[in-house]
């Protein structure tokens, strides 16, 4: 796994847009975020700069504009953030996390069946 700085919730919103495009300029990032958040364009540009400074995104100059792209795949970021969340909130116990969701009725019976199948397939691959 790639070792990279923590991504804030606001930065995640920008990353979701960037991950959906191989390359995207700030105008289009702002346009895509307009309906989702109430940030002004300078705020979004600041978030882009923070992501650049953290080496989470890169850019290339094309004419008069900068095209931004992710340096870290979305699935890798999700794995790292998920592990961080489980460690912070559930002391690293996936079992505790699942029990919490099941007991609070956050997981449907169908989801439980799907999880059983996933776990069964996973144990077959390991065995």
Protein model, in words:
This protein is mainly alpha-helical and 127 residues long. The chain has two domains: 9-70, Orthogonal Bundle (Arc Repressor Mutant, subunit A), CATH 1.10.10.10; 74-126, Orthogonal Bundle (Penicillinase repressor fold), CATH 1.10.4040.10. The chain is 61% helix and 9% strand. The chain has six helices and two strands, in the order H-H-H-E-E-H-H-H. The chain has helices at residues 9-19, 26-34, 41-53, 74-90, 94-103, 109-126; strands spanning 57-62, 65-70. Strands 1-2 form a two-stranded antiparallel ribbon. A hairpin with a 2-residue loop joins strand 1 (57-62) and strand 2. The radius of gyration is 19 Å and the shape is elongated. The two termini are 24 Å apart. The model has no long low-confidence stretch (mean pLDDT 91).
Shape: elongated
SSE arrangement, N to C? HHHEEHHH
What Rg is obtained from the alpha carbons, in whole angstroms?
A: 19 Å
End-to-end separation in angstroms reads 24 Å
**Order of strands, widest sheet:** 1-2
Keywords: DNA-binding, Transcription, Transcription regulation
GO biological process, one term: negative regulation of DNA-templated transcription
InterPro entries: BlaI_family, WH-like_DNA-bd_sf, WH_DNA-bd_sf
GO molecular function, one term: DNA binding
């Amino acid at each position: 796994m790639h070792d990279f700085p923590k991504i804030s919730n606001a930065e995640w919103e920008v990353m979701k847009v960037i991950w959906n495009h191989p390359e995207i300029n700030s105008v289009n990032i702002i346009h895509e975020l307009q309906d989702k958040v109430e940030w002004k364009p300078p705020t979004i540009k600041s978030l882009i700069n923070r992501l650049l400074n953290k080496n989470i995104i890169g850019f290339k100059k094309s004419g008069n504009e900068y095209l931004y792209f992710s340096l870290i795949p979305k699935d890798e970021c999700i794995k790292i953030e998920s592990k961080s969340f489980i460690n912070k909130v559930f002391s690293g116990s996936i079992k505790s996390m699942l029990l919490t969701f099941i007991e609070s009725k956050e997981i449907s019976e169908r989801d439980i069946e799907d999880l059983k199948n996933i776990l069964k397939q996973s144990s077959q691959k390991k065995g």
